[in-house]
Design brief:
The complex is a heterodimer of chains A (160) and B (336). Chain A has helices spanning 7-26, 29-46, 53-71, 93-103, 107-117, 123-130, 134-148. Chain A has 160 residues and is mainly alpha-helical. Chain A is globular. Chain B has two helices and 21 strands. In chain B, strands 1, 2, 3, 5, 8 and 12 form a six-stranded antiparallel beta sheet that branches. The chains are: A mainly alpha (160), B mainly beta (336). Chain A binds chain B through residues 8, 11-12, 15-16, 19-21, 23-24, 29-30, 33, 36-38, 40-42, 44-45, 94-95, 98-99, 102, 113-114, 117-118, 145, 148-151, 153-154, 157, and chain B through 1-3, 5-15, 18-19, 21, 24-25, 27-28, 31-32, 35. Chain B: Residues 1-15 have a biased composition (Basic and acidic residues). Chain B: The chain crosses the membrane at residues 41-62.
Amino acid sequence: MADRAIFHDFVATRSDRLLRTAYLLTHDWGVAEDLLQESLAKAWFAWPGIDEPEAYVRRVLVTTYTSWWRRKWRRELPSDDLPHAVAHDPPGGEREELWQAVGRLPARQRAVVVLRFYEDLPVAEVAGLLGCQEGTVKSQCAKALAKLRVDESIVKELHR
Amino acid sequence: MSAHDLRDVLRERAEAPAPPNPHRHDQIRSRIRRTRLRRGGVAGAAVAAAVVAGVSLIPGAAEPPAREITAAAEPATELPERFTADDGTEYRRLVTAELAAKGGQKTSVTVPVSGKPLDVAGVCAGTFGSRPPSISVNGKPSARATSLRCGKDMQLSPLVVPEGATEVTVTFDTKVSAYSCVSERKGGPCEPIKPRWVAWDLAVYEWTPPAEPVEPDALKAFPARLGGMELAAKAAGLGDEDRSFELVVESPGGKLGLEQLCTGELAPRMRFTYRIDGKDTGSTASCGIWKNGPFPLAMSEHAVPKGERVTITGKAALWGAATNRPVRWSVAAYVK
């Protein structure tokens, strides 16, 4: 059980890392800050009953993000279809294109990509965070990677 | 693209410098408080209504006058403990106070005076036009302070304290209002404006002047024509001290308009007074801040003798202290 007395310390020491995850989800530092604060405020009310604060806040962060996206509060314009591949490098290069493509993924797929490839969480944990089946995580991940045009070398990682 | 590339891109982006937010703790506390109020529902609302006014102090500041605390209240966490203005000036909160959303509220706080300039800050949950509190220092109206305006963003207003004071008592009072009355028709009775009461989070800050003067942005040029009138003369200045200027114009139609523009963090604190051929216009004008969009027209119009040269003498001044925070200003005379 987490003591509310350590909430302040938790915010001071862990919010930077969580903010970066929020940024990968939202692609905007301002919205990321908003998402982080909203998640921490929600966590505060559940704090006395939380065993693992960081995992709990991360879960709230992801579910809050996907719920925002569903409600379209943030005026995102996600698209299921990426533009056709261009014959030449865009001005920002392939990495920039990949970053932009991640930003165009639907919220749940983006969350799966961030949790799997930035947080390096195993499928089971991602499923736990998103509140879905492991199979759903794998299929969402596969769809996301297809859209990102990440090569087949990754397929084996999907089942890790 | 490989999985390795994807990982690299995510790490690269995530490890980019994040904008610092020194107010995160305050902002989270504020969210918690709002959520708690929402969850409190009707019972919470009843409790909130019972709170007439509350005061809280940061550690180390002077104790508040106990007589003014009528109920325990959450600190005014909408207002950060510290923040940095756009021109780099560091603000430190000395004391906070709250006023409930009903008429006739009054609360006082005692503020230590270190010699650094003081500002009053406020945020309210209402809309523009909602009645702001009057502010007095040691029981005397803070005549030189501009009033706060209700808005979602924090509003700052200078607080002028008596010379040599080591502490002052600042009173926020919605019994006395900066708003007065309006007449429905010319010569008709002046009816008091129906007040819209809102809750206020208030604070007093002290700020540390920047080490070097901060250069304000360049001013946009006045339009050649404005409100059907033509630009006839203009004057400009830069500084944090009072400054006089003179414009000489001739108006064929006997109509004169005066406009002001300013840049700089303290631009909203500029005020201008005019005399036309030695006669006081009797009004004080504030400054327009024109960053984009249409010109922020707020022209004061005056009747002058047709076809005769008139001399306009004016004075530009700032409310409160402005050490190393100069304002760039410009005034223009339009004629018709």
